[in-house]
Design goal:
With 356 residues, the chain is an alpha/beta fold. The protein folds into two domains: 213 residues, Isopropylmalate Dehydrogenase; 110 residues, Rossmann fold (3-Layer(aba) Sandwich), CATH 3.40.50. It is 39% helix and 20% strand. It has a ten-stranded mixed beta sheet with strand order 2-1-3-12-11-4-5-10-8-9, sandwiched between helices. Helix 7 links the parallel strand 8 and strand 9. The longest helix is centred in the first third of the chain and has 17 residues. The protein starts with a strand and ends with a helix. The chain binds 3-isopropylmalic acid (IPM) and magnesium ion (MG). 3-isopropylmalic acid binds next to helix 4. Magnesium ion binds next to helix 9.
Length: 356
């Protein structure tokens, strides 16, 4: 049966990197993969066109699709808009509307890029870590929130960090199951020494661990985890954490792999339906200049094939093609080092398609 993919390029470098990922999908379609693409607007591009960062049409095609491919949202142009219609609201809205509570962010160092990391090669060589970030709860969505005026006339901004046991349980299960299929180690990251919501997080993870005797569960405070990620990242196999901690730690982990331009992600619902996007943002400073690295988006397509379309061999083909192109010395400027061949966004995409 034809699988439907909703394609949402978004803002900034979004359209450029998605165009390269679409080249990969088109090549796979030529080779027999039965897919159909449908485009939608999201973020600032959607706001400009329709007055909302998440138009009904986009939501409808995304709900009807088997998987969603997203570029990035946001940019200087929309920064002064009211928070309720900012591009980021489109992204948070679609995550929430599609119930994409499990965000998988793998940080894998391609050996060819050991020199591109700002960390010493021996600290990062062989790195293969999976961050499982809770994506539809926590302080990103907690109520009440807002900016209010106090009795003395001073303004106060407030947000609420809340987690229900059921929310912790379902993300915990995803993380334990991933750990079972990998190295059998799960580190739950919290701030249980200060925040009650993450005290419950820790208790719930401990209770859940009884169902997974083959997984070794450990706990770490988020400040220590940030430090350990740059000190000795290879101690980690799978990390599971809250929405905001996961946002921060995954950016940190991305630099271990040479560039944030290398990290894909999958955001999954209970049934494995997913939205796939690079973890980096819209990079408005380099938009439209053929400078962005499309690899994170192309690797997101590989995740789509693995997690939603059930085609692990094709996923591997894409990952091998990326590896081959890196072997050939091709580098976008974010991962460039002396002696390599510097290429633009489109050339990198074409080379990966050729290597497929
Ligand atoms: C990410 C991004 C988003 C987030 C922004 C753009 C809303 O930083 O996907 O990591 O904070 O989740
Ligand atoms: Mg982020």
């Amino acid at each position: 049966m034809t699988k439907k993919i909703a394609v949402l390029p978004g803002d900034g470098i979004g359209p450029e990197i998605v165009a390269e990922a679409v080249k990969v999908l088109e090549k796979l379609a030529q080779d027999g993969l039965d897919i159909e693409l449908e485009y939608g607007l999201i973020g600032g591009a959607a706001y400009d066109e329709t007055g909302t960062p998440l138009p009904e049409h986009t939501l409808a095609i995304s709900k009807a699709a088997d998987a969603v491919l997203l570029g990035a949202v946001g940019g200087y142009k929309w920064e002064s808009l009211d928070i309720s219609v900012r591009p980021e609201k489109g992204l948070l809205g679609i995550r929430s509307e599609l119930n994409l509570f499990a965000n998988l962010r793998p940080a894998i160092l391609y050996p060819q890029l050991a020199d591109a990391s700002t960390l010493k090669p021996d600290v990062v060589a062989g790195l293969d870590l999976m961050i499982v970030r809770e994506l539809t709860g926590g302080i990103y969505f907690g109520q009440p929130r807002g900016i209010r005026e106090l009795a003395n006339g001073e303004k106060q901004g407030f947000n609420t960090l809340v987690y229900k046991q059921s929310e912790i349980n379902r993300i915990g299960k995803v993380a334990f199951e991933i750990a079972q299929k990998r190295g059998g180690k799960l580190c739950s990251v919290d701030k249980a020494n200060v925040l009650e919501s993450t005290e419950l997080w820790r208790e719930t993870m401990i209770a859940l661990s009884a169902d997974y005797p083959d997984v070794e569960l450990s706990h770490m405070y988020v400040d220590n985890a940030a430090m350990q990620l740059v000190r000795a990242p290879k101690q980690f196999d799978v990390m599971v954490t809250t929405n905001m901690f996961g946002d921060i730690l995954s950016d940190c982990a991305s630099m271990l792999t040479g560039s944030i331009g290398m990290l894909p992600s999958a955001s999954l619902d209970e049934d494995g339906k997913g939205m796939y996007e690079p973890i980096h943002g819209s990079a408005p400073d380099i938009a439209g200049q053929n400078l962005a690295n499309p690899i994170a988006t192309i690797l997101s397509v590989a995740m789509m094939l693995r997690y939603t379309l059930d085609q692990p061999e094709i996923a591997k083909r894409i990952e091998n093609a990326v590896s081959k192109v890196l072997d050939d010395g091709l580098r976008t400027s974010d991962i460039y080092s002396e002696g390599m061949t510097k290429v633009g966004t489109a050339e990198m995409g074409d080379a990966i398609v050729a290597a497929l």
